[in-house]
Amino acid sequence: MIMTNDPLEIYVGRFQASLPSMTLAERQDIVDEIRSHVHDRVAAHGWSIPEVLERLGPPETLAGEYHRGNLLVRERFSLLVLLRIAFAAVVTAFHGMFLMVVAFYGYAGALVCFGLLIARMLFPEQTTLWMTQDWDLGMGADRPPDATVFLANWLQPIAFGAGAVLFSLTTLLLQRTWRSMQRWYRRATGPLEVPTLSGARKAVSSVLREFRDARSRLIRVRTRWQNS
Amino acid sequence: MPTEDLNESRNQRGSDLDRWEAQLRKGCLELAVLAALAPGRSYGLEIIRSLERYSDLVLSEGTVYPILNRLREDGLLTSSWVESETGHPRKYYSLTRLGYERATRMAEVWMQFTSGVSALIRPLLPEQMEKVR
After folding, report:
1. Residues of B in Cβ contact (< 8 Å) with A74
2. What pLDDT does A72 receive?
């Protein structure tokens, strides 16, 4: 991971991360334009980069404007859009249920382990684990004569380890599921790409635009090379 | 009504008015951007400058670029990167035929709309209020 203190790079990084789903070329084009604006403002008015960035507004808000723009323009009501939203709602509901079950059992298990750890310190006799020769398990001071104590002094470190592992795994799983849920939601509310005639026309014009952009970039590079 | 409540009520009305004004500015920004490109091709900062020169529509410079991007996606504008004399490339926008037609139509609707509303709100203006008194 590259760390930087350059305010423009930090701004661009946050801006890029918040942009809605789009092609790499579109994303690069938008970012290049924002960079160009900053350099123009600095050159024309002598402002500092942080001043220019402040006038642009927070990067997340700026990226959000592109998102809203896309939604307003591209999304039109149709059966397909309705199906996508319904599918996204079902997937989100499944994610939500999974999140709830994982959170409940994961954190409850961790709580039991930590509880056992504390109980073992306060009431060592009542929290002794034992097992009979018939493989019956139990806990407490009142145990059958043929029962053998197990995990005697190991109970505390094992309870602590199990609690910590359960807590960490549950948190990790919740984070991953949450991210996956957000990805699904973004896909459902993002730009719709279906093979329609207007879509094909748009794709062709997009390819042509990218070709023109690539050509103008090539010309820029050539001009720079010739000037140098 | 206690003074604190009165001040709070005034502040609330003030923020409502600010929100309304912001929405109004945002609503006509699209027309203003198209109008700024009517004389010829221009790049982001130049468009912002002409908007600032003729109006106080630009509250945050960041609002202009997403609008330009959307208008381009709608086929109302075309764009191309051009190397500038300052050493970095600039993205120039120009109106397409569709963009010019849309801007003309929007300007007509705007004129009709504003002349109607202007006539309607005339009695609210201070000089008219003076005449009534």
Report:
1. 73
2. 40
3-state DSSP assignment of residue A4? coil
ipTM for this model: 0.76
Per-residue pLDDT at B129? 64
Q: Could you list the residue range(s) of the whole structural domain that residue B100 is in?
A: 3-132
DSSP B61: G
For residue A204, pLDDT over 50 is answered with yes
Backbone φ, ψ for residue A38 (5° rounding): -60, -45
Return the SS3 of B81: strand
How does DSSP assign A145-211, residue by residue?
A: TT-EE-STTTHHHHHHHHHHHHHHHHHHHHHHHHHHHHHHHHHHHS------HHHHHHHHHHHHHHH
The confidence score (pLDDT) of residue A74 equals 47
According to the model, what pLDDT value does residue A68 have? Answer: 58
Which residues in chain B (11-40) have CB-CB distances under 8 A to chain A?
Answer: none
Query: Do A32 and B45 make contact, defined as CB atoms within 8 angstroms?
Result: no
Say which residue the tokens 């109607």 belong to. B116
Q: Residue window 40-99, chain B: list those with CB within 8 Å of chain A.
A: 43-45, 60-63, 65-67, 69-70, 73-75, 80-84, 86, 88-91
Q: What is the mean pLDDT of residues B106-113?
A: 93
pTM: 0.52
Residues of A in contact with B73 (CB under 8 A): 73-74
* Number of structural domains in chain B: 1
